[in-house]
Design a protein that fits this description.
Helices cover 48% and strands 18% of the residues. With 136 residues, it is an alpha+beta fold. A three-stranded antiparallel sheet has the order 1-2-3, covered by helices on one side. Helix 2 runs antiparallel to helix 3. The longest helix is centred in the first third of the chain and has 33 residues. The relative contact order is 0.17. The mean pLDDT is 91.
């Protein structure tokens, strides 16, 4: 009986580790999907010269439908002015973008570590520049 009690205690202590690994894999796949959506939107924005309202709307729709989050949780910061490609590199022709998407669970069993649900989340941010391919 003593061995059984010890076995149960050991299983309870070791249970968070495989659960955390599974959650890490889930979060990694979620981040990969977000990167894919952002890459697609960025390529469209390069052709247009900026992130049009339609490109932003489609990006937000893809993210919110896939991850079941509210539109207000996704933050997109871009320039609203069309940039055009020139024959020589010019820093002013780069399209800036910053997309932030919430990741709700970071720790698998937060109560075990004394973490509440408000602390068990983060914003996944992708920020960068893209060279405009729009021609005047």
């Amino acid at each position: 009986m003593k061995d059984f009690i010890v076995l149960i205690a050991v299983l309870i202590i070791l249970l968070p580790f495989p659960l955390q690994y599974a959650l890490e894999e889930y979060n990694h796949n979620q981040k990969s999907e977000i990167q894919s959506y952002i890459y697609t939107a960025k390529e469209k924005a390069k052709q247009e010269g900026y992130f049009t309202p339609e490109i932003k709307k489609q990006l937000i729709d893809n993210i919110t439908k896939t991850f079941h989050i509210k539109e207000s949780d996704v933050h997109i910061t871009t320039e609203k002015v069309r940039k055009y490609r020139q024959s020589k590199f010019n820093k002013d022709n780069l399209i800036y973008y910053k997309i932030e998407v919430p990741i709700r669970k970071i720790i698998a069993i937060p109560i075990l570590w004394g973490i509440n649900n408000n602390e068990n989340k983060t914003m996944y941010t992708i920020e960068g520049y893209a060279a405009s391919e729009a021609i005047q």
